[in-house]
Amino acid sequence: MELKIALLKGDGIGPEIVDSAVAVLEKTAEKFGHRFIFTPYLIGGCAIDETSLPLPQETVDGCLASDSVILGAVGGPKWDGLAGDIRPEKALLGIRSAMGLFTNLRPAKLYPALRSASPLKDEIVGDGFDLLIVRELTGGIYFGERGYREGRYGTEAFDTEAYSVTEIERIGKVAFEAAMKRSKRICSIDKANVLESSRLWRKTMHELAEKYPDVEYRDMFVDNAAMQLVRDPKQFDVIVTSNMFGDILSDEASQITGSIGMLASASLGASKRGLYEPIHGSAPDIAGKNMANPIATILSGAMMLRYSFGLTAEAGTIEKAVDKVLDQGLRTADLMGSSLDTPLSCTAMTEAILKAI
Ligand SMILES: NC(=O)C1=CN([C@@H]2O[C@H](COP(=O)(O)OP(=O)(O)OC[C@H]3O[C@@H](n4cnc5c(N)ncnc54)[C@H](O)[C@@H]3O)[C@@H](O)[C@H]2O)C=CC1
Ligand SMILES: CC(C)CC(=O)C(=O)O
Ligand SMILES: [Mg+2]
């Protein structure tokens, strides 16, 4: 297969981890006789520095003209003082919206080899957990009306959470279909005891649940869910939730797998073209130090092969290579806790994975 892949390296550790994913994808392509053509485009802070825009039109056009997209991360302290509309993060929301990517699949599983990296006790983790967070990605408070207005205590800033039945139904269907292929258990997470948008979310999910009688459905308030994730993560299989709740709960879920540097994601819409991105940010505290864990981005590349291109064996090869290096005890610093051993650098971990392919 010959495939065009747009690269959005972004800021901070973005370039380091995307380079790792590219190396792994190139080795996989070579092994299976494919040709991947990579084209880089600017996004985020680096785009602001060069063009004064966080999301240049050329980047949007390039992504829409490619077969799929790999993203590193955007943002950093250098751009934190900018107005909301020209911040790096606005570009990430912009490209997800421009590509129509309303679904974000965030799998969180505990690798047996990383059991000691999880902060949870053995009796809680048992033989591991494997959950899939299905996060709505182009609606809710990240996209709602916002601004400043005169309020009770003077000028106030506001952001709005809004969801339509159409938006809830389409993400719900993705989650129910995913549950049908897994253990047929789904938990919808909302704040329906307070928010009107959550009450519509819950009502719509209940109606959808009737169409999937084989799926065991329940709902939970988000504050309870945040607690239950660390109390007993194994109770969950598929979680479906809104944009902001999914963002927050997936960072929490990542840490119980050992590190946020492990969690990949697929941002998907109606077409096969997706955007594949680690769940973490640009990690300015470790950027440029060759310390980042590249596995989340490498596994995002594997998700791209599986979801966008249907290259299941190729995706499996990358996932098995990751399993193998973890089984060998190889670790980047984020997975080592207080161990006195020397951690692997980002490039050394990438080399080990390349060797295992
Ligand atoms: N998808 C994206 O582009 C996202 C961008 N951001 C942006 O990233 C910047 C930093 O945000 P933070 O809140 O610090 O979140 P972050 O996810 O960048 O970092 C949180 C902590 O996790 C560590 N970490 C993250 N990824 C890692 C990896 N691959 N290997 C090892 N350690 C890793 C970092 O060193 C840091 O201590 C901000 O400008 C934020 O807006 C945040 C989240 C998502
Ligand atoms: C940086 C934000 C736009 C979003 C975020 O944190 C995420 O998608 O994980
Ligand atoms: Mg996030």
From TrEMBL:
Q: Where is this site: Important for catalysis?
A: Y142, K191
**What EC class does the entry list?**
oxidoreductase
What keywords is this UniProt entry annotated with? Answer: Amino-acid biosynthesis, Branched-chain amino acid biosynthesis, Cytoplasm, Leucine biosynthesis, Magnesium, Manganese, Metal-binding, NAD, Oxidoreductase
Q: Which PROSITE patterns does the entry mention?
A: IDH_IMDH
SMART domains, per database record = Iso_dh
Q: In which pathway does it act?
A: Amino-acid biosynthesis; L-leucine biosynthesis; L-leucine from 3-methyl-2-oxobutanoate: step 3/4
Positions bound to substrate: R96, R106, R135, D223
Q: Which domain of life is it from?
A: Bacteria
Cofactor remark: Binds 1 Mg(2+) or Mn(2+) ion per subunit.
**Catalyzed reaction equations:** (2R,3S)-3-isopropylmalate + NAD(+) = 4-methyl-2-oxopentanoate + CO2 + NADH
Q: Is NAD tagged as a keyword?
A: yes
Cofactors needed by this protein, per the record, are: Mn(2+); Mg(2+)
Domain Isopropylmalate dehydrogenase-like: from-to ranges: 4-353
Q: What family name appears in the similarity comment?
A: Belongs to the isocitrate and isopropylmalate dehydrogenases family. LeuB type 1 subfamily.
User: What name appears for this protein in its UniProt entry?
Assistant: 3-isopropylmalate dehydrogenase
Q: What is the lineage of its organism?
A: Bacteria, Bacillati, Bacillota, Clostridia, Eubacteriales
